[in-house]
Amino acid sequence: MITWGISANSHDASLAVFEFKRKGLLPDPSLTLKFASHSERFSGIKNDPHLNFKLIEYAQQWGEPDEVVWYEKPFRKTIRQFRAGQGWNYAENNIKKYLQQYSITAPVVCASHHHSHAAAGYYTSNFKHATVVCIDSIGEFETLTIWEGKGSNLKKTYSQGYPHSVGLWYSAMTQRIGLKPNEDEYILMGMAAYGDGTRLYQSIKDDFIGTSGYAMISIKQNLHRGCKDWRPDLITEQDMFDIAAATQMVYEDILRYTLKKAAHNSPSKNLVLMGGCALNCSANHIAYEYFDNVWIMPNPGDAGSSVGAVLAKYKKHITLNNAYLGYDIEGDYPVDELIKELKSTGIAGVASGRAEFGPRAFGNRSLLADPRGSDIKRRVNDIKQRQQFRPFAPVVLDEYADGIFKGHHNNFMQYTSTCTSPSLYPAITHVDGTSRVQTVPKDGSGIRRLLEAWYKETGCPMLLNTSLNIKGKPMVNDLTDAQEFAIMYNINVCS
Q1: Which of 43, 171, 299, 305 could bond to 358 as cystine, CB 3.0-4.6 Å?
Q2: Is the pLDDT of residue 27 over 70?
């Protein structure tokens, strides 16, 4: 039996393919994740909210769906949109009709938005008992939920609803500093290191954040349409840096308060953190102040809910050791070619194997560089046409990470840690001395073999790693995309 999980019609559409198979007469069937990808990778439209025919065609190689699990409850979403002044969108939220546009006629069942988030995290963790915290902009009504995962069951223990949304507030502050909400929040995170958070901390907290009422974290304003008019006196670049820094400080306070409450009310010392806010790698270390073990699914936002919706229905744990779930560029990982290019020019692209599922590149659709070069950061930012204050991440052999980085790190770039030798690795060290570290275990992956070869050649156990994408477009998906990148930026992309 083939089940498709779909998250679409709102923001960053995705599709996941599962195979549900009985093993002889055994009562417990297996559930296997065969494929998962963002629609944007096939359409070329950043954060494409709609399904794409090329995506569907690629997914069909595993078979036509016998059923579809949708990632939220459309009627409840319609009610919330009406209450929020967005009009009566019942026809727009008619999911069966929406799917028929793409010739998808299989029976449809729906999971709720936050249930999909929670399930995506809990059922991909190795935990048999865990506290699950989901924080995002908004589902149907919910903006923050807490769950207890035990065995095969997920039970909701707390729910906070619209308009009290931490995610909407963070997106509104992203818009306030001139960035694109629901897309550029990670840029705000990087900008924060250049600002003085103490200058505007109290102003932001007083104007936006409350602790009264039914909500654990109350928001004093409905920020669905942003807050562009907040503090019009703040106009300089340094003002924007200071807003970013204060926003990050307040968010970390909120996360600390939320996790403290969740830990106090839970017997488990295992945490699953989900929702778009779980992508805030500068704050995620706070989780370890209250929990012993933490799991963040590599795609914790809405796109990951295509996986979560199916897991919510079947209540089954699956193994998720990596995020290589997308389009496959077949062939051997080009280790020798990459080494030659990196030693020659310091920078090389790679498009090989299965594409990453999630917002981050983990070595299969990456722009790689020597982290030791004093001018590498500027060169890579020039190639990607990014602001020079933007940081880059290192990808490092797991066994050497603790000797170079102090703090939490894992193989999904979900934490920032302090680089102990910033002068040796200037290209991957942010202005505040931190790095968003990706470690690579001894898993035989292409990026692992490349790092081993690079270390043997240079004595350096890491590379700078950023996503292989043309400015304004999603990550490279296939060889055509890779060739377009190579031509546009005059960079050798190895496949």
Answers
A1: 299
A2: no
